[in-house]
């Protein structure tokens, strides 16, 4: 897969977004993302991160552009185009001020969902000022009104593990018809969905870079033995110079026997 992929294959896959069977060169990677939801929350959820060989998604100062190559960027925009909603954490908004659109590929923009538990972000970021629509997911007891800039505010229960409850967010999105959900980052946000057993699929790009320090990809509860780690199967795709690992999580979470 690379940035010059045959667009007709991509257009064929986009048709699968609306129910046609996935076909073509992209279907092994994206077919599982397009599968119907089977979890009780009503959503199909894919997480994604681009990390260095030593498991960092950004430098210690928060610089992450760009860990992956052009193929990773294309892949990220494709996931946005296939999903109804893209979820990111407040830390990523603060560092990157992203737009979260599909400008690199044909396909619709997803609804943007920013998790900012205590509403610490100002309304000056692009997601709160510009189209497409944004939902701000915060705690039920967070201060402020029903709008944050142009974004609608969604109030959800706090999780004892930190942040808001991922399951509650998924149920709220499903109630709005947003059933295919892309959790794009950063590391804490993807980790919280993973720790809650809320990811069907995880796409991890590994770039041939060592930073030696920086923001970690995964932050999960400590385990005492290797055997207690979360073990899974994966499919490896080449997106030179990187590799993309397509991981079948199937809603597993740390602490489950595998
Ligand atoms: N390589 C990649 O694939 C990739 C993808 C996305 C982002 N990134 C990078 O990852 C970094 C962010 O990741 P992350 O794991 O630190 O966080 P994140 O998952 O984006 O956001 C979640 C965290 O943001 C916190 N937060 C930190 N500072 C905040 C502030 N000033 N205002 C509001 N909330 C704040 C939240 O607090 P609560 O506990 O209150 O919820 C929560 O802990 C950025 O440097 C970004 O560039 C890399």
UniProtKB/TrEMBL annotation:
<comment type="pathway">
    <text>Cofactor biosynthesis; riboflavin biosynthesis.</text>
</comment>
<dbReference type="GO" id="GO:0009231">
    <property type="term" value="P:riboflavin biosynthetic process"/>
</dbReference>
<dbReference type="InterPro" id="IPR002734">
    <property type="entry name" value="RibDG_C"/>
</dbReference>
<dbReference type="InterPro" id="IPR050765">
    <property type="entry name" value="Riboflavin_Biosynth_HTPR"/>
</dbReference>
<dbReference type="GO" id="GO:0008703">
    <property type="term" value="F:5-amino-6-(5-phosphoribosylamino)uracil reductase activity"/>
</dbReference>
<feature type="domain" description="Bacterial bifunctional deaminase-reductase C-terminal">
    <location>
        <begin position="48"/>
        <end position="223"/>
    </location>
</feature>
<keyword id="KW-0521">NADP</keyword>
<dbReference type="Pfam" id="PF01872">
    <property type="entry name" value="RibD_C"/>
</dbReference>
<keyword id="KW-0560">Oxidoreductase</keyword>
<dbReference type="InterPro" id="IPR024072">
    <property type="entry name" value="DHFR-like_dom_sf"/>
</dbReference>
<protein>
    <submittedName>
        <fullName>RibD family protein</fullName>
    </submittedName>
</protein>
């Amino acid at each position: 897969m690379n940035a010059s992929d045959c667009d007709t294959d991509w257009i064929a896959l986009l048709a699968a977004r609306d129910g046609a069977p996935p076909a073509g060169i992209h279907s092994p990677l994206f077919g599982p993302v397009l599968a119907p939801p089977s979890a009780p929350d009503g959503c199909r959820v894919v997480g994604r991160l681009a990390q260095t060989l030593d498991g960092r998604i950004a430098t210690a100062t928060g610089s992450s552009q760009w860990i992956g190559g052009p193929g990773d960027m294309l892949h990220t925009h494709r996931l946005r185009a296939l999903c109804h909603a893209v979820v990111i954490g407040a830390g990523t908004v603060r560092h990157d001020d992203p737009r979260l659109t599909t400008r690199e590929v044909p396909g619709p923009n997803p609804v943007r969902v920013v998790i900012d538990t205590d509403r610490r972000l100002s309304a000056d970021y692009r997601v709160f000022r510009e189209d497409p629509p944004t939902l701000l997911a915060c705690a039920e007891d967070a201060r402020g009104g029903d709008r944050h800039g142009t974004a609608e505010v969604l109030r959800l229960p706090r999780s004892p593990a930190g942040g808001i409850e991922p399951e509650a967010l998924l149920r709220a999105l499903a109630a709005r018809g947003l059933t295919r959900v892309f959790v794009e980052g950063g590391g804490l946000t993807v980790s919280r969905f993973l720790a809650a057993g809320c990811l069907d699929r995880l796409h991890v790009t590994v770039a041939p870079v060592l930073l030696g320090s920086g923001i970690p990809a995964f932050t999960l509860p400590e385990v005492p033995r290797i055997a207690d780690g979360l073990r899974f199967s994966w499919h490896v795709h080449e997106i030179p110079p990187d590799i993309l690992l397509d991981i079948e999580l199937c809603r597993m979470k740390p602490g489950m026997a595998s």
